[in-house]
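Tokens in:
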């Protein structure tokens, strides 16, 4: 039984499907680094997904020196897949360090959200949404390009 569970978990990233333009995203709820719940909602315009530490570092670099609320002003949310991070490391070091970030990090501890969306492990997936439907998809491997793309999104007053 343990083997079957281990096999399923190791193959779960392969089960992600490519999100199609026009597809409505299934709802989900995750806790952020402050243990506050966030649910995907129709107002969300941009969903950023990082599947590993490299992707999370890209987002961190892109948002460096940005004011608190920068993503929220653009109706953007950031999901970090931390399922492979050892629990002790996340609890004692990583998540406490994230509490100092000026932006919200939705923590996918079980890999149930990030694995829904296919994409390269070392890139940041950008899903452009309209009322919960995917209207465009992009991937970023460069923090400056991600920052420039975010700057093109008008902030709400």
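Residues out:
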């Amino acid at each position: 039984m343990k083997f079957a569970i281990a096999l399923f978990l190791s193959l779960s990233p392969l089960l992600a499907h490519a999100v199609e333009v026009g597809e409505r995203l299934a709802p989900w709820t995750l806790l952020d680094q402050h243990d506050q719940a966030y649910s995907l909602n129709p107002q969300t315009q941009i969903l950023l997904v990082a599947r590993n530490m490299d992707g999370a570092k890209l987002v961190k670099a892109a948002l460096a020196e940005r004011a608190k609320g920068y993503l929220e002003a653009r109706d953007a949310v950031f999901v970090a897949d931390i399922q492979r991070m050892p629990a002790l490391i996340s609890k004692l070091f990583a998540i406490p360090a994230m509490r100092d970030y000026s932006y919200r990090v939705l923590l996918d501890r079980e890999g149930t959200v990030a694995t829904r969306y296919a994409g390269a492990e070392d890139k940041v997936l950008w899903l452009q949404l309209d009322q919960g439907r995917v209207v465009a998809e992009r991937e970023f491997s460069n923090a400056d390009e991600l920052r420039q793309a975010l700057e093109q999104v008008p902030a709400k007053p």
